[in-house]
Design brief:
The chain is an alpha+beta fold. The chain is built from five helices and 14 strands.
């Protein structure tokens, strides 16, 4: 089986600060102390893109996107414009990295909560450029297919019918009409239209809000995963629990029978919102 594999430097990993409840090893949030941040790449108000001090994967370039100056907040708490600015800012830098010629793969993702694989409570995303990893080994296109919940301006929200792990996974798919040709660093590149990106941000916010309210647990955790699939943007929203042993040990994917119910419940939630 072909796989992507990369070295993880445990010497550096042991030094990473941990502020999520249950794994606290420092009282100071490194993202709150903006004056102490080094290697800041770009800012947009209280949104900051900075080089990761703990580059644990080799070879790679790891960046951190600090989403807000509000340490104990998260996506459901953001005003609409803050969420839209975060997505515009992050996608712009992600696409710039993808088109830089420096990397074979660039991933863009978010960890939130103790089951997500993250270590810092403060809301943030990460961009990681890999010079060697094969992007086609990072997904199966079937994983982005599902029961359509909402579609407008070339943006589709669906409930995945081929989930990566199982339970309630949701996909956002940007179709051709959501893009425009753009000159990026002297090269022609497809860039999502601003109104489609804003709708994407709105749908991410409402989907995360829905799953957080639905599961209603103190250690609620989730991931956002952004994918470049044949030049088009895909997003997977995945609530996180203990990973099923069938998947961990045998790569068996679970398809819950409740997928239609989850789709219908999110559809009702979305209908109550005005985009």
């Amino acid at each position: 089986m072909d796989i992507n594999i990369i070295n993880f430097d445990t010497t550096i990993g042991k030094k990473k600060p941990r502020t999520i409840a249950g794994m606290v090893n420092t009282n100071e949030c490194p993202f709150c102390n903006v004056a102490a941040l080094v290697d800041i790449i770009d800012t947009d108000g209280n949104i900051i893109l900075v080089r990761n001090k703990y580059n644990v994967m080799d070879p790679s370039t790891q960046l951190v996107l600090i989403e807000t100056d509000q340490c104990h907040s998260d996506i459901p708490d953001y005003p609409e414009e803050q969420m839209r600015r975060i997505i515009r800012f992050g996608v712009q830098h992600w696409i710039t990295m993808l088109n830089s010629g420096q990397y074979r793969s660039v991933i863009f993702f978010k960890n939130f909560g103790p089951m997500s694989g993250g270590t810092i409570q403060h809301p943030h995303m990460q961009l990681v450029g890999y010079p060697d990893l094969d992007p086609e080994l990072m997904y199966d296109t079937a994983e982005f297919e599902g029961i359509t919940i909402y579609q407008y301006k070339g943006v589709e929200l669906n409930a995945s019918t081929t989930p990566r792990i199982g339970f309630s996974e949701y996909n956002l798919v940007l179709h051709a009409e959501a893009y425009t040709d753009t000159n990026l660093n002297g090269k022609s590149a497809l860039m999502p239209k601003t109104d489609s990106l804003d709708l994407l941000a709105d749908l991410i916010k409402e989907t995360v809000t829905f799953i957080k309210e639905f599961y209603n647990r103190p250690n609620f955790s989730y991931n956002l995963f952004f994918y470049n699939v044949e030049g088009k943007l895909r997003v997977k929203i995945m609530p996180r629990f203990a990973t099923p042993p069938m998947y961990v040990g045998y790569n068996i994917h679970l398809r819950p029978t409740s997928i239609p119910d989850f789709a219908e419940n999110l559809k009702k939630h979305i209908k109550n919102k005005v985009f």
